[in-house]
Write a sequence for this structure.
DNA sequence: ATATTTTTTGACTATATGGTCAAGTATTGT
DNA sequence: ACAATACTTGACCATATAGTCAAAAAATAT
């Protein structure tokens, strides 16, 4: 895929007076329009898929949230399924990128600690993505199955081997690596997927910065101690 | 609601030859037919809602899974939403019943240990219910919000106070009770909600009895050690 | 036996929604 | 300036589906 500029660049947020300012480079504008609209639509779609599920998400609602007419959404994404695919792929990419925080060059304590932190931050910053992912898996991973069997399996095996090495070296207590990973995944994602429940039990208030910090600390403390490491 | 007999009794599993066997008591049969069909429909609905989501679940599919014509489903449950409500209420009841396994009369080790065991067993025996619950919360708890603010909040507060007492008595390490509960909920439910992912990472094989046992053991080990208790 | 109530079921309807299209507008290339 | 390309959008259509209904069958009561 060719990329002329970052999707994050959003030059349309400026208001250009006609003919009073120099035109942008051609290639830039050409791509910008597409990628700009696609980004807006993808963001809206992620939210709507998360809150209504695939079947409950209507292209009309996605269009409304994106602030575009429905036909325009279909201009950029042929079908609702294609749009959904793109959303799911983006989430998977984000997650795999975060997975690199599990850096086995560091010791178990640092590696696990940083991985948990990263996952918690992702739960906070990408709650919609997390929910879409959860729903995708719960429905049998119709779209992402190949990736599960490929990249995710490889990553899990690799990290599992490092964990087993640490255990053999006496750097942490013996535990089945798979269950440790599941525990980390589930706990961190819970703060996104069940954010509504947590908010309700928090007196209807969303977590403050301090509460997020405390949550991260609590989760890290239990898990690290749980595998025989000493949290700071 | 009047109940003449348990829903679990299923006398239709026998094949009665016409006029060769004595008829069942009238009151029994009258209710039996209703509750029997309702039970079948509710079970089918739970599965379909879990696998397709509320919007994706069609009454036709629910009827097919239940082995009945669609109109018959609507005879027992006026609307799809009513059927969904009943499914969600049943799940909540099951969960609150399991919540009593968190018996604070026992010490922290036994209480937590049994609660985790019970939740793990529930994840294994009621995976569909768990998924429906997860989706309900992820979509903002449109149906179950009142129960979250009532029963679940009360239960959590109560158990939280007991945990704090244990901590004060030096029976376990200091930890915010809310995060401990979330960690237990998320981890145990993960084995239901993300069962598909776990199965994929398990070489496409569902967990055997031994694997479930090992999973329970691993989860209990990490959590108990994580709060300063010594697992067996 | 007969009346009454409950259950069954195919056929039907109203509506919502994914997707199309063609006509128009804006942008870009020469 | 002009042609070509890319984007926009209201109107439209085919289909799927929640829910209805009436007529019949079965079960139950008297």
């Amino acid at each position: 895929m060719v990329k002329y500029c970052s999707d994050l660049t959003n030059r349309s947020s400026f208001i250009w007076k006609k003919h009073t300012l120099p035109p942008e480079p051609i290639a830039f504008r050409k791509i910008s329009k597409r990628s700009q609209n696609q980004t807006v639509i993808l963001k809206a779609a992620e939210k709507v898929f998360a809150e209504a599920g695939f079947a409950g998400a209507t292209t009309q609602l996605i269009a409304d949230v994106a602030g575009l007419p429905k036909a325009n959404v279909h201009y950029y994404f042929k079908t609702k399924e294609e749009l959904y695919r793109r959303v799911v792929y983006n989430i998977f990419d984000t997650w795999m990128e975060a997975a690199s925080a599990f850096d086995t060059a560091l010791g178990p304590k640092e590696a696990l600690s940083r991985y948990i932190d990263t996952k918690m931050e992702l739960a906070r910053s990408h709650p919609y993505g997390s929910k879409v992912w959860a729903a995708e898996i719960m429905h049998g991973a119709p779209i992402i199955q190949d990736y599960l069997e490929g990249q995710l399996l490889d990553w899990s095996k690799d990290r599992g081997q490092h964990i087993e090495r640490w255990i053999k070296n006496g750097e942490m207590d013996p535990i089945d690596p798979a269950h440790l990973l599941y525990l980390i995944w589930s706990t961190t994602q819970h703060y996104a997927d069940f954010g509504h429940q947590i908010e309700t039990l928090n007196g209807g208030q969303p977590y403050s910065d301090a509460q997020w910090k405390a949550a991260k600390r609590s989760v890290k403390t239990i898990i690290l101690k749980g595998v025989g490491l000493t949290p700071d």
